[in-house]
Request: fold
Amino acid sequence: MADYKEILRKNNQEHILKYIDMANDKQREELVKEIENIDFNELSELYKISNRDKNKALESQLIEHVKFVDKYKMDKNDYKKYELTGEEIIKNGEYAVVTMAGGQGTRLGHNGPKGTFLLNVNPKPKYLFEILADNIKSANKKYGVTLNWYIMTSTENDQKTEEFFEKHNYFDYPKEKIKFFRQGNLPLISEEGKLLIDEDFHIKYAADGNGCIYKSMRLDGILDDMKKNNIKWIFIGAVDNALLNMVDPILLGLTVCENNQIGSKSVVKRSPEEPVGVFCKKDGKPGVIEYTELPTEMAHETDEEGELLFGESHIMCNLYSIDALDKISKENLPYHSAHKKAAYIDEDGKVIKPTKPNAYKYEAFIFDGFAYFDNISILRGRRNEDFAPVKNAEGNDSPATAIELYNNYWNV
Reply:
């Protein structure tokens, strides 16, 4: 305990001692362990970026338009070449899929992992996980394979996700072909740089962003498992896209034929204000500008044909060679800060539920891994075929819009 108190004092977190006094023996023991496992040097560096001017960070970089290939305007011979190239890799069993499913359905009013959200599509309602499983099974049948399916959960929803799959018999997907792994966490920090404590006397943590998938795959043995199974190419997508095509031989063939190690699918932004990240080149390297960091003037720029200069939306449809994942997994991606509302208990033990942002969350973005390569293959798809996100309870990108897009696509 003496060492523990010294750690807190040294790092200006003495307020935690009051919670120690309030906690019972079990809570106290667990809280001490959490404190001992925190990298306070990292935390201090993260806090420094909390109020960073995001526009100024962009101003220091050369931002350029990035080239793409439109799936529906390409030469027929090229299309066939890409298709055959991609199909051969898939049929050889050298392809795997990864689903990022660490989030909760809070914004949807759903109590549970987002992938367990039931979407009222025709001809019968389906869970988001079920929609993905059906699509992968369809690809398996088409190509005569059984793809390895890796699912990234979080500390918050790992147990419930695995129980959900067990309860639903893995949606008739071979259990031995599914592997779960967890993304990491980082503490939330108050506006004053203090750790927050929840009502169970634990430090308040939040998932450390989808960019930490690379390191999680290495630490949890997923990359080793892929190598053992002779997997050469991996698709990583989000759980909340009801039209997600995880097995697209055109994207795969294009990336291989362009001699790139990474590829991605895009759709045109609905409007300059749409809250999606957009592809670009930053100082000559492929990247994405997150919508919270895209200056208004840049968002409205157009080319000679009137198309948005930065209009290729990053829709979380990313492809990697196994070597690319191996490379990025050994790097430390930059963290970004987000101002969030976070409930906590005050030093009198009272639960505080703020009505405005009161804490900083730190997360790495998956697209920051692109910067370790000179080029990326981008395949422009179509929103009505590739992108039906389920993010908001109402309005755009809600269950209602996703259901409509799903039903129209499948003609049901």
